[in-house]
Design a protein that fits this description.
The chain has helices at 17-27, 33-46, 48-51, 62-69. The protein is mainly α.
């Protein structure tokens, strides 16, 4: 990995690791994870029509899904990616 200027960087293991990893890649620090989380949930809500089929319960549950996922320590998954 060194030959291509890559390295493994450990992220905080507090349930925010997906958002910490994105924050690290975008800003060079994992400290912006909460902002990344909020932007992600805002985007999912703004594109309800697209995302509704990926959330159990569909359009009727997307608001609850995003409210839950906005909480610190709630794992991000493939939908957030």
């Amino acid at each position: 990995m060194e030959s291509v200027n890559m390295k493994i960087v450990e992220m905080g293991g507090d349930g925010n690791c997906l958002f910490r990893a994105i924050s690290y890649q975008a800003y060079g620090t994992e400290d912006c994870h909460q902002i990344i989380r909020q932007y992600c949930m805002d985007y999912i809500l703004s594109e309800k029509q697209y995302f509704q089929s990926y959330i159990e319960g569909g359009k009727g549950q997307i608001e609850n899904y995003c409210t839950h996922k906005r909480n610190d320590g709630v794992w991000g998954d493939d939908l957030e990616l």
